[in-house]
From TrEMBL:
Species the sequence originates in: Peterkaempfera bronchialis
Residue ranges of domain Nudix hydrolase in the record: 2-126
Enzyme class: hydrolase
Record flagged with keyword Chaperone: no
Keyword presence, Metal-binding: yes
Listed EC numbers: 3.6.1.55
InterPro entries: MutT-like, Nudix_hydrolase, NUDIX_hydrolase-like_dom_sf, NUDIX_hydrolase_CS, NUDIX_hydrolase_dom
Keywords: DNA damage, DNA repair, DNA replication, Hydrolase, Magnesium, Metal-binding, Mutator protein
Cross-referenced Gene3D superfamilies: Nucleoside Triphosphate Pyrophosphohydrolase
GO molecular function, one term: 8-oxo-GDP phosphatase activity
CDD domains in alphabetical order: NUDIX_MutT_NudA_like
Catalytic activity: 8-oxo-dGTP + H2O = 8-oxo-dGMP + diphosphate + H(+)
Family statement: Belongs to the Nudix hydrolase family.
Full protein name: 8-oxo-dGTP diphosphatase
């Protein structure tokens, strides 16, 4: 089976990154993640990231670069995390999330991230500290 890709967006803005608390399904509800979702057939990862953030948060955002690493979410589904910048709008938990938080580099450990997302936190902290 061809792998589908899930893109998570590490949305960087004014020295902080946006964390989003999942509202479903039950197994992951309450855990924190990078907003995003599956790349649809015919879409580039960059297009998928922009579409998902428009749908989920009501903002315009632009994908910047993939962070190192990829993780098998389940057979046939691979997670990649890209940095992104906010172009316009103020993120709201319109879809899929119950809460949003902007976290600075020293606050990244303060929320209960999904397991795979933890792997990129050192790199996100490094980027935030450098910005
Ligand atoms: N969006 C997102 N999903 C993540 C992250 N980390 C992680 O393990 N996942 C997992 C959770 C889900 O099993 C899967 C993505 O599913 P999703 O529900 O966000 O994707 P989607 O909006 O396109 O879903 P769908 O309703 O179209 O099926 O990847 C992350 O940082 N962001």
């Amino acid at each position: 089976m061809e792998n589908r890709v899930v893109i998570g967006a590490a949305l960087l803005h004014r020295g902080r990154v946006l964390a989003a608390r999942r509202s479903a399904p039950a197994e992951t509800a309450g855990r924190w993640e990078f907003p995003g979702g599956k790349v649809e057939p015919g879409e580039t990862p960059q297009q998928a990231l922009a579409r998902e953030l428009r749908e989920e948060l009501g903002v315009e955002a632009r994908a910047l670069a993939p962070l190192p690493g990829e993780w098998a979410v389940r057979p046939g589904l691979v997670l990649r995390i890209w940095t992104a910048e906010l172009l316009s709008g103020d993120p709201l938990p319109l879809q899929d999330h119950s809460e949003l938080r902007w976290l600075g580099p020293a606050e990244l450990d303060g929320v209960d991230w999904l397991d795979h997302d933890r792997a990129v936190l050192p790199e996100v902290a490094r980027l935030l500290n450098a910005s």
